[in-house]
UniProtKB/TrEMBL annotation:
Residues 1-10 have a biased composition (Acidic residues). PROSITE patterns: JMJC. It comes from Piedraia hortae CBS 480.64. Gene3D superfamilies: 6.10.140.1470, Cupin, Kelch-type beta propeller, Vaccinia Virus protein VP39. Residues 1-63, 369-402 are annotated as: Disordered. Probable S-adenosyl-L-methionine-dependent methyltransferase that acts as a component of the wybutosine biosynthesis pathway. Wybutosine is a hyper modified guanosine with a tricyclic base found at the 3'-position adjacent to the anticodon of eukaryotic phenylalanine tRNA. May methylate the carboxyl group of leucine residues to form alpha-leucine ester residues. The lineage of its organism: Eukaryota, Fungi, Dikarya, Ascomycota, Pezizomycotina. This is tRNA wybutosine-synthesizing protein 4.
Amino acid sequence: MLGVEEDDGMPQDAGESKEFTPSGDHQIKGHVEEPKSLRTQDDSQSLKDGRKPNKSRDHLIMGTNSSSIVSKRSVEKFYYAGEPEYLRYFVSTFKRRSPLINRGYWLRMMAIEQTIGRFLAEPSPKQKVLVNLGCGYDTLPWLCLGRRPELCGQATFVDVDYPALMQKKLAIIEKTEPLRCLLPNFSRTANPNGLLAHSDPYVAIGCDLYDLDLLDSILHEHLHIREGNATVMFVAEVSLAYMEKEASQQIIEWAANLPDSRFCLLEQHLPDGADHPFARTMLAHFEKLGTPLKAIGTMEEMRRRFIDAGWPERGVQIQSLWKLWSDPAYLTPEQRRSLDDVEPFDEWEEFALFGSHYFHLVAELTPPPRPPKDLKEQTSHLSLASHPSSSTPSKPAEQPLQAPMLPGKAVFRRYAAVVPATSEISEGEAVGLLGGLGTQERLTDCDTYARTEDLLPIQGPPMRTGLVCHTITRLGGTSNCIMAGGRTSPDKASAECWLRQDGLWRKVQSLPEGRYRHCAAPLRLPTDPRPAHTVLLFGGKTSNGHVLDEWLLWLGEEGWRHIPVVGDAPPARFGAAMITNAREGVSGVLIGGMTSSGRVLNDFWHWSLEPDLTLYCRNVTARALAVLRNNAGILGRFGAQLVRTNRGILMIGGICDGRMLTSQDEVLNMKTLRIHPMIGPRPLFIGTAITDVDGGLIVLGGGATCFSFGSHWNKPAILTDDPEASLRCGWQLLTTQAPATAAESPIHHPVVNGSGPRLPEPSQLPRRSLEAGIDFERICEDAKPVVFCDGDIGRCTRLWDVAYLKRMIGADRKVVVHSSSGERMDFAKKNFEYRTMEFGAFLDRCERGERLYLRSISQELPSEQPTNLADDYPEIAADFELPGELISVVESLHSSPLRISGPVRMWLHYDVMANVLCQVRGRKRVRLYPPADVNLLGFAPGASSSLIDVFEVGEGGRLRAALANTHPFEVDLHPGEILFIPPMWMHTVAPTDGISVAVNIFFRNLGPEFYAAGKDVYGNRDLAAYERGRRDVAKMTKWFEALPPDIARFYLERLGQELIAKGRTLASSSLHSLYAELS
């Protein structure tokens, strides 16, 4: 298909409300007769532009339809409440997408449908033809015919896409009565391509868009579009984007040469070039899918392409989707607010980044009349001033800045808060970064960044759960600080407040109501006998979505006091930026923020706290905008940071209304109201925490989920005009510390009734939601097991019972199985034998409780090549599918064995390759141990299988003592759940509920150079480095054979200790941090 682009997944998931909402019965006009000559295309021939069909690439483009239509279906189900649902017939398994993807697709769909609705509603004596170029499984004809048939009396809907995809779509239409009943006289042709079906209001064309001759011929012969008796609207939603620029330009020119046509185009663009972090992630995503965006450019370039193709300049209207979001011609404030009733939402910066990288273009051969001069600002048509490239600085720019990365490692998190050093002695030498959203979950721990290594780590308060969008405010020149508010999910705001005093955290009076994305500023009150240091809070958003306009002042033991406002009161907002005029004072500024309707405020306020504890506010927006002139739009921001530097106060990052901040204007000097251009690579100034150090700035954390394209995470950087600064500053990540009460106690193992050390209770593995969006590549890098509890693995969970498996695979098919004499198969004692039996008999005996185990092997070359479900069990392979969020598993696939077992346990072992265990039927108890426990679990050198049974441990002895020091994890795996097992994590599995059926997919998560050369049928051959190391160890021991035995042992054990120490140094995280995170 030439119309969609999503990779099925991330941390993420779309909807719609619209001015045009068809409903009710329909009346449609008859069609012309079937044309006498129907031309079809032979795929073996070159297309019009000389391009030969590329079936492989065409297949990849068509494949994007599957995931995108799932997202649109998610929109339909949740955002079209009470309306007919047509996409449901094209999506076999429903998946709820993340709020970000839901809202992004909702905006796309709304823009297209409003454009179509206006087109259909225009009075005209002509026939109206709506041609969807690269339609995929979109249901635009049914949306119109089924919901607003009164607009469709003169309309014909034409779907155009690849022949193979259109044939599938027509097969669904033909067998689905709610779709077919809206298409009177529906008839399919026998053509393999070309005209595939037609009815009174509908035409289906199977055609590669490169073949304009075929498309033009069918449209003219069937609908007479060249004769001037029809008005044609072409719709292309992310379809021309996959074509070569010359070919897509031919389509634009062809449409411009028809007597009466319109064009609606929605696709990606680059508002700040290909190096912007979002753009880079987006482009890499399409490259990885094998569907690169061939002609992506700027909005101005696309507008010029249409004008050059013959569309009148005044008839080409283009704006970004983020601009359209705030355009009253498309959406009212009430409509925007109503979306929050569907599902909680707080991914505003990411939504703006998505909307800023997509545009909506409408071109007309007969432009509408010019609006009156005083209404121009209210029109939905393009104002190129909304595009950054058209906005020129009104004043000379300040010194350009760079953001070189700090050396060393980093912990990825965003929407965290800076914590000052624990003591005044460490002031300027260390800073903490607390909480925030990590790669897998909200975090409770605290990173310590320092310029020396001999400082105490900084800890946060003992929070019950990780928070984002909280504030931490330093109290005067001390190390004391107060943490306030924040949230878990957007509908769960925290009211808790914590005070750190003399290095110790304690809970203090809570806020009157939980809030997040509020502003906080430190104040110094001129009280007697000495000044009082306190905190002023403003605004924020509550759990129920209420946006606040209240000012709160912290008065120590008295708690929080409401502060009344004198003069003009700033309207309610959240996500604004606030700072005091001086480091210690009672006055400051408030800038920007967002309204309850999702609009970024472009305003600027001065405030001061009076001696009677009232707040005096003045709106100085007009003065600031007059200075900024053409750059006025970059003043008001959401999610920006105001920081003090030796150059004055800088406002950095965030988002603004209707356009995207670029490298040229995302840093604004508030003293001079001039911009500091950024040069070179830079962080994504979203969700960052920026703090001043010795007059400079350190940028910590930040990043974004880039819609469905993946995630971008910032590495720590220093913001400077000196390119060598990062090499000289010495700052780096020192440690990551758990909350204050979570520090480890000395390890000791209590004895139970004299029976030996107590074994540790296994910690339960965390369960993650694929619907909430994940970055699976990051999960692989973190190398910690995770259970995905809502992944859709296909119809296998419903179909694969014993009867079905017998029928599909064949009851008489011969299979090789393990037959065990005990409840646990012992790889060392070989208490099992390999037996060949008929598949049906194997299943029957498993049902009777016999200890049998099938691990599929290759049918063709069992000792030479790995097994693959599609090759070895093609009869059932189509029933199983891996969620699109895990696409990297398929891309690096090694093998996919089918596992079926009765009541028998697998021995403890590790796999060298990463794998996902997909439970289909039955339940399994899975016990896992981290790689650091390997020497405690009975693994002989060079062996990947253990000699011990961790489920059955005696009362005493060395085995129990060793196991007492391990760190077990466990999960009860249910049907439909997916367990990610990183390499080297030791695990054993025991069925707990009848026959267990699973698909286990092994994949290479390391580069090919790390794996040993040669055959690896089962995916458990050790890495090349280990194999080489063992050979070197064998050589090394020979060097000591001539020495006296005690001396040889002395030196060899010393060498062994060096290797152990080196291994611990290379480990990316301590065992404690790993254990704490998974627990």
